[in-house]
Every structure is written in structure tokens, then in C-alpha cells.
Amino acid sequence: MSPLSQSQQQMLADNVWLHFFQMGHLSSTGARPTVLTRGIGSRVWDQDGNEYIDALAGLFAVNVGYGRQEIADAIAAQLQRIAFVSPFSFPSLPMIDLAGKLAQITTTGPQSRSFFVNSGSEAVETALKIAKSYQRRQGFHERTKVIARRGSYHGTTMGALSVNGVTEIRNGFGPLVAGARHVPARYRYRCPHCALCDQCQGACADEMEQMVEFENPETIAAIILEPVQNSGGVLSPPPGYLQRVREICDAYGIVFIADEVICGFGRVGGWFATTEFAIQPDIITVAKAITSGYAPLGAAIVRKSIADTFSGDENDKFMHGSTFGGHPASCAAALASIAIIEREQLHERSRVMGDYMLRELHAALDDHPNVGDIRGMGLMMAVELVRDRATRESLAEQKLMGWLSDQLKQRGLICRADDRLEPVIQLTPPLVISREEADKVIAIVADAVYALGRKLGTVPVLHPLNQILQPSPAAAADLEFIA
Ligand SMILES: Cc1ncc(COP(=O)(O)O)c(C=O)c1O
Fold first, then answer.
1. Which atom of ligand 1 is nearest to the CA of 260?
2. Is residue 226 within 6 Å of ligand 1 at its C-beta?
């Protein structure tokens, strides 16, 4: 590891354009960017040798952890055998094996087909095109609209962007693809119907059906949603919600697209959120952790009944593709990553470790006046920050998220502090995170949230933090499985 040379610093200032990042900030403030140079397991190091726990898994991607030699070897071996195969004409061996594997581990069925692309946005783009084209092939030329949920994130290419529920990301690029409609997110803590009830009243599913009826069902091509919505801070569906969406789609002839770009490959415990909720969507979109981030890859996994409508004569084929979609090295990386998840039962580990971390987060933060809600599923967790816990008043404050991210990073933790809906700290570490690392993550989050409380004047300047950093004996006992 060596610090950046003068010329690298200059090239970074002049030539690099990071995503969703204000590059001008670097030159105007003279801030030194963090350049990550190495990673092992759940830990990464920057150019100065500083160590961090990466509780963002890169960007919800590195599920099997950093430094897996066998994935690097699988990529190298494939590149040595044949570096490129055109997906317009030829399947590659790893593509065949991967499509078969995905058909086995998803709920779309053993004869589902995978269309491989390079990213989550492209997977969503592909799913939307398949859905619309499928409807036309059935004779439904008016079915062009797509219903998504507010606050959801589905990507940045024009089709995916149009269904995106994050207004500030959608704004400024119009006209977008016509026909996107957005229903409220399923957000139990702030649900206008049942936030204060003991049980969810199912109003979120009713709103979906009302939207379908209001728009006229015969104009709706598809519904797209993340089974557990990441954006907004881990918004899990209530029991029966996804089942209701499936029923609505069946009743009105709508294609059900489950966007599992983040939920998939063990993130929420179990292979996919749709396996956990036992739901069979028509199309599942995946990316990110399909290769654990070792190579770019995405896919739309399509149920046979829909894929078959593209399998008749020459005129039926799907007029869509991209040069690097399903690159053989990426497919080889995916097979190696999936093999590791399977061998080490990381999807199960995600469930157990997620339960542990959630319990410890509650133990550490339940009494904090600025912590409104702590929620999660598997190793996908969120702590929602509020101004006042009793009233649930929002803590929306400019620059709060930047301040909090800095606080967490200074303490050695990379994670997501996000306020697309309400301010949340999101934790989605690699599924291999150790018990010690998990304890450290919780200690750092607690410490930073207490620093926030001191800043806001809601907690005393001196707080007996030591008390809350010890895992409870009950939670520790549960962890024998992953000792
Ligand atoms: C649910 C979901 N869908 C799609 C995407 C887009 O994926 P990508 O950034 O690979 O284009 C993302 C990215 O975070 C996502 O979270």
C-alpha cells in the first residue's frame, strides 16, 4: 500500500468521475479521498493503511467477502480458456451452467430462462422490455404501464430510472419512459394506516390494487418491487403482502417482477427474499452479489410461460442484447461465488448473524432518544433516526448524513447513512462477518449515534457506553453455529 503519487492525485482531481459523487468537492475543499486498495473477508484498507470494517459489502455486493482466491482463479482459468464469447451467437460453458444453477435456486421454476446482462439497471431494463413485449405478444397492446413503489431504487438507465421511486434521482432527465406509476412504499413504522396498530392492516396491498383499478388493469404491463425494499432502510413486507401482489397480478394479467438485485444471494437469509416468502414472481432481476462483486453481471430470470412466448419462429425472438452481457469470466465468477455460499451455508449464516446483530442493535440503542426504529432481515439492517422518539418527528437535516458517515468512518466503519426517505444507518456487511467484527460494528454505530445525541443535546455528554457494548448472554449462546 502506498499513498497516491502527485500525478495520481492530479489525475483523480482532473480525470475521474465517480458515480453520484460531487467531484468538485475534492478540489474545492482539498479533501483527501479514500482510495481502497486491499480487502480480506469483511475488512478493507485504504492507501494509508487505515483499516475499516466494510458493513456495506462494497455496495451490497461482496457477499462472500473479499480476497477469495477461488473466484479469482475461476475468472483467470476462464480467461485463459476463452476470453470472450458473443452472447448474440454463442453460449459459453459457464453461462450454461449458471443459467441451470439459477433455475434451481430461484422460485421462477426449473425451466426458467436467464437473460444475462452487466448490471442491475440493465437487468431491470431487460425485465421491463420482456414484460411489455410479452403483453403485446398476448395481444394486449394497451398494456404499457408499470407500477413501482415510492422510495424504491431500480437503477439509472432510462427505463429503470422511470420506475425508480426516488424523485431526486429521476428529476432532471425527462422525458422519461412513459407509463410509470408509484404507490406508497410498505413502511410499517410510518404507515399512515397502521403504524400504531398491533398488526399491519394490509392497506399497502390495497393501495396497489386500487392503483391497478384506477389506471384500468388493461393498461398495466407489470408491477416491479423489491421484496424487501433496501432504499428507505430495509422495508420488509408484512405477512401476506407479496402473496396479495401475486394474486393481484394473476387476477389482472400483470407481470410480477421481483427486483432481487440487493435481496438475492443470501442477503436477507435464504437464497432470495422470494424463497423466504415462498413467492413465485414471473421475472426475478439479479446483479451485484451474483458474483459477490468480483465481476460485473446481472440477469433477468424469466418463468417458462413467459420465456416461451419468445421461442417460436425467427420473428418471435427478443430484440435486445449487449456485447458483454453474460461475459464468460463473469459467469465463471458467479458459479464460484454461488458454490462458496452453498458450501459455507452463508445464506443460513446471514439469518443467524442477522438475528444476532439486530438483537444487539436493540440492546445498544433502544434507549436512545434519537433512535426511532431498528429493523432488518438477515444481514440487511437499518437504524432509523428521529428527532423525537415519542412523536416520531423526522430528523431530516441538511448535511446530517455526511456528518454521520464521517463519524462512522473515523471510527473504522464503512456503511450507508442514507436519507432517501427518512435518515437511516444501514448495515449490510459481507455474509462472512465474524462475531467480533459484528460486535465492533454495533459498538461503532452506538458510539456514533451517541455522538449524534450529544450534538443534538438529547443525551448527556458523558454516557456509560461500556454497558451497551457487551453482547447479551442469550444472544451469544445463539452464535455457536457460527463460532
Ligand atoms: C434493487 C436495485 N435494483 C437495481 C439496481 C441497479 O443496479 P446497478 O447499480 O448494478 O445498475 C440497484 C442498485 O443499487 C438496486 O438496489
1. 1
2. yes
Q: According to the model, what pLDDT value does residue 28 have? A: 77
* Amino acid identity at 158: M
114 lines ligand 1 (CB under 6 A): no
- Does any ligand 1 atom lie closer than 6 A to the CB of residue 87? no
Position 24 in a domain:
yes
In a shared domain, residues 123 and 265: yes
- Does 451 lie in the same domain as 429? yes
- 2 pLDDT more than 70: no
Q: Is the CB of 401 under 6 A from ligand 1?
A: no
User: In terms of domains, do 357 and 472 share one?
Assistant: yes
Beta strands in 64-162 (DSSP E): 113-117, 145-149
Are 177 and 59 in the same domain?
Answer: no
Q: What is the DSSP string of 303-350?
A: -HHHHGGGSSSGGGS-----TTTT-HHHHHHHHHHHHHHHHHTHHHHH
The confidence band for 471, taking pLDDT boundaries of 50, 70 and 90, is very low
CB-CB contact of 478 with 438 (8 Å): no
Whole-structure pTM value:
0.94
Q: Which residue has the cell 457494548?
A: 469
| pLDDT band for position 450 (cuts 50, 70, 90) | very high
- Domain final position from 344, 365, 381: 344
Tell me the residue ranges of DSSP E strands in 89-198: 113-117, 145-149, 180-183
Residue appearing with cell numbers 470472450:
84
Q: How far apart are the first and last CA of the chain?
A: 31
Full domain range(s) for residue 408: 48-64+346-482
pLDDT digits 0-9 by tens, 40-79 = 999 999 999 999 999 999 999 999 999 999 999 999 999 9
CB 71 within 8 A of CB 62: no
- The rounded Å distance from CA 381 to ligand 1 centre is 18
Distances, alpha carbon 171 to alpha carbons 166, 183, 346, in Å:
9, 18, 38
> Helix H segments across 371-434?
400-410
Query: Which protein residue has the closest C-alpha to ligand 1 atom 8?
Result: 120
428 lines ligand 1 (CB under 6 A): no
Task: Tell me, using a 6 A CB cutoff, whether residue 121 lines ligand 1.
Answer: yes
Mean pLDDT of 329-350: 98
Task: Indicate the range of 12-26, 36-50, 429-443 predicted with least confidence.
Answer: 12-26
**Cα 127 off chain centre by:** 17
Considering only CA atoms, which residue is closest to atom 13 of ligand 1?
Answer: 155
Q: Note the pLDDT tens digit of each residue in 171-212.
A: 999 999 999 999 998 888 888 888 888 888 888 889 999 999
